[in-house]
Amino acid sequence: MNKKVIVIGGLLAGLCTGLLGTGGGIIAVPLLCKALNDRQQAHRLVMLFILPLSLFSLPFYLSRLTADWSSVLLLSLGGIFGAILGALLLNRLSDGILKVIFTLLLIVTGVRMLIR
Q: What pLDDT tens digit does each residue of the chain (116 aa) get?
């Protein structure tokens, strides 16, 4: 896979993240899986990829945010522990299991979006 395709994929992933607040990984994971032929490495790289996307879009969200900061703190604490657990599990799960988990997450998310 050439660098131009990866840059365009990054552009689309960034667009989704900026527009929807999520979705960059949904585009970047399959793209990097194909480019690297290594699902676990693709998941690891996407974690590095999502950080700058979040940081660069944050100022645009903050300008219109009315937040319950205690909820943000609690969500962040849970998220940190969940991310640690997920990173530890990533090293133990096969590519096939990761593929099933990722696919199920996409299906559940899509169905929930349609019915709400």
A: 688 888 888 899 888 888 887 778 888 888 888 888 888 888 888 888 888 888 888 888 888 878 788 888 999 999 999 989 998 998 899 989 988 998 999 899 889 989 98
Answer for the pair 110, 26: CB distance below 8 angstroms, yes or no. no
Determine the Cα–Cα distance for residues 68 and 97; give it in Å rounded to an integer: 36
The answer to whether 63 touches 81, Cβ cutoff 8 Å, is no
- Residue 21, CA distances (Å) to 53, 55, 60 in order: 10, 11, 11
Within the chain, what is the greatest distance between any pair of CA atoms?
44
Q: Per the structure block, which two tokens stand in for 74?
A: 């609690």
5's tokens:
């395709």
Listed by start position, the domains of the chain span 3-115
- How far apart CA 37 and CA 11 sit, in angstroms, is 21
Joined tokens for residue 27: 């585009």
